[in-house]
Amino acid sequence: MVSKMQLHAVGEACPGYTYTGGDDLVSLEEGKEPASCENCIHWVHGRCTIDMFDKVLSSLDQT
């Protein structure tokens, strides 16, 4: 099972992250929500539809 910490870490580092509410940079600067897979347009039914989650997570584990 994926933890909230992993979802946030991957969201922060993912090159494919796109905030569901529109422009992610504006939304994050305004402090609405931190980057997380849970608020990315590619996160559907607990899965990354562009298959980036595992790739990004494993790259974080190696650093």
UniProtKB/TrEMBL annotation:
<protein>
    <submittedName>
        <fullName>Uncharacterized protein</fullName>
    </submittedName>
</protein>
